[in-house]
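Attaching the record inline, Q. Sequence:
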Amino acid sequence: MISGNPLTIDSGPDFLTMATKLGAVRSLQKPFKPAALLAAVAGSLEAAQRPSPPSLPTGEVASGP
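Structure, as predicted:
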């Protein structure tokens, strides 16, 4: 997610939280340096390639350790 909105309490809707709930794994606030964008993209691609842990069927709760 890339945003030009400042991340303050009074900035209106919390776009970072909304984007995270929709699946965003990285965020950048403008202005940003090209190296920061490249690092965020590389990190996102690496995260997408990692195997995800198995999920539980809907309605089931994981037992404690």
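The chain has a mean pLDDT of 75. Residues 1-35 form one domain.

More tomorrow.
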